[in-house]
Structures are given as C-alpha cells and as structure tokens.
Amino acid sequence: MSLKWTDVLEIAIQLAEAKPDVDPRYVNFVDLHNWIVALPEFSDDPKRGGEKVLEAVQAAWIEEAD
C-alpha cells in the first residue's frame, strides 16, 4: 500500500505508531511534514503537503491519540 496526502487517517495512524512519545498537539508543521514524507509507505509529491492537509493530519493524529 502506498500513502498519498489524501490518506489522512492512515497517515495519522502510522505517525501515532512511529512516534508514540510525541504529543501531536505540540508538533510544528515543518516536523510533521518531514515525518510524513519519511514514512516508508509514503509515495506522493512532498510539495503537495500544504497547511490544510497538515492540519487535517494533525487533527486526526490528536483524535487517534485520545
């Protein structure tokens, strides 16, 4: 399976598994973007990861963590 920016929930799940000690409420978007594009299954254009999609991923990650 390959991840695209539209796979917000799956990205959030993988980040929660990869970064269990990170509180997603305090992650800045630069780090978040870098972590997403570094996921093994991520295969989308890194330039397409704008603020709106990063906000959506962060919100889903917060939801996943709760």
Automatic annotation (TrEMBL):
Q: Which GO terms describe its molecular function?
A: ferrous iron binding
Q: Which residues cross the membrane?
A: none
**GO cellular component terms, A-Z:** cytosol
Report any one BP term from Gene Ontology: iron-sulfur cluster assembly
Signal peptide span = none
Protein name per UniProt:
Fe-S cluster assembly protein IscX
Q: Which organism is it from?
A: Metapseudomonas lalkuanensis
